[in-house]
Specification:
By secondary structure, the chain is an alpha/beta fold. It contains 13 helices and ten strands. The model is unreliable at about 340-345 (pLDDT under 50). It binds 1,3-dihydroxyacetonephosphate.
Length: about 350
């Protein structure tokens, strides 16, 4: 195992006041997001959009790493620079989504498992050579009637453990991402109960597979009320439940926990992150690894048109800077209220 590479990557990803930009949408996902805004999902549009994100001036101040999709890690900027080289030149660590999406778990209607282990060892070696230094693998756990089942939780945990061990073998830091979906009318208590069970099982599998806990990062959601639950828990309750769940399940040897946004809109995600970050004496560093909650305003501002690049970059920098403040517990509504081109906290 390239232990030194792994240790330095972990430190760089978890640099204080910074977080990750998840820009690893698969073809169907980016296609869906573009379509909602009337943007054609062509290879050139995807390339141009990701280039505008990565070249936004000031991005490295609050973004330590970017999660790329397979297509993007092989693309070049308009000036001919390979995307991972561009990121590395900015001091941003390139990472890569290596799972191949989810599929129905046989005999368990409505539940899913994640594909992508076949040939993974070879793909990881190639990604390392292309410049990636960390990997991400997402498992999806739904909450519903009789769900999740123990079989679904265990299957995904076992797959996650193999992914993580193979990544470390290749010198890549695995980001283990069990996503407990917000969809449904479940209570925040139920979300906490399911998240606790999933994280316990995941760490048991990781340990059984001899994954180096110091060389991995956990990515998961905040503990929230289901999107359709009539009682929506407030910011303080979310923060308290999230920290309690992590303290009960995530070993102190794990260096960091990063949040997905999972369908929360941008400002509430930042507000909750800010509150969570105020918790004292945590054994892990906590930060963001948002996709939608960082990108939505930027994608909307861009709308597929080159003339809107500056406005889109301004919107991204604003969100990144707000989240950079939130991981220090220093985010305020005043910072949020500044014009998109402003840089909160940096007069
Ligand atoms: P969201 O923040 O949009 O949930 O995306 C993060 C991610 O990486 C999902 O796998």
């Amino acid at each position: 195992m390239k232990t030194n590479t792994i240790a330095s990557t972990v430190q760089a990803i978890l640099a204080p006041g910074k977080g990750l930009l998840a820009a690893d949408e698969s073809f169907p996902t980016i296609g869906k997001r573009f379509k909602e805004l009337g943007i054609d999902s062509t290879e050139e549009n995807r390339r141009a959009y990701r280039e505008l994100l990565f070249t936004a001036k000031g991005l490295p101040r609050s973004i330590s790493g970017v999660i790329l999709f397979d297509e993007t890690i092989r693309q070049r900027t308009g000036k001919g620079v390979a995307m991972p080289d561009l990121l590395a030149s900015l001091g941003i660590i390139p990472g890569i989504k290596v799972d191949a999406g989810t599929e129905a778990l046989p005999a368990f209607g409505g539940e899913k498992f994640t594909l992508g282990l076949d040939g993974l060892r070879e793909r990881l070696a190639e990604y390392f050579a292309l410049g990636a230094r960390f990997t991400k693998w997402r498992a999806v756990i739904a909450i519903g009637k009789g769900m999740p089942t123990a079989a679904c939780i265990r299957t995904n945990a076992r797959i996650h453990a193999l992914f993580a061990a193979l990544s470390q073998e290749a010198g890549l830091v695995p980001i283990v991402e069990p996503e407990i979906l917000m969809d449904g009318n479940h209570t925040i208590e139920r979300c906490e109960e399911v998240s606790t069970a999933v994280l316990r099982c995941t760490f048991e599998a990781l340990c059984e597979q001899r994954v180096l806990l110091e060389g991995m990062i956990l990515k998961t959601g905040m503990i929230l009320s289901g999107a359709d639950c009539p009682r929506q828990a407030g910011v303080a309750e979310v923060a308290e439940a999230t920290i309690r769940c992590f303290r009960r399940t995530v070993p102190a040897a794990v260096p960091g926990i990063v949040f997905l946004s999972g369908g929360q809109s941008d400002v509430p995600a930042t507000e909750r992150l800010n509150e969570i970050s105020k918790a004292p004496d945590l054994p892990w560093r906590i930060t963001f690894s948002f996709g939608r909650a960082l990108q939505d305003p930027a994608m909307k501002a861009w709308g597929g048109s080159a003339k809107n690049v500056a406005a889109a970059q301004g919107a991204l920098i604003h969100r990144a800077a707000c989240n950079g403040l939130a991981v220090r517990g220093a985010y305020t509504s005043k910072a949020e209220g500044r014009a998109p081109h402003g840089e909160p906290g940096r007069p």
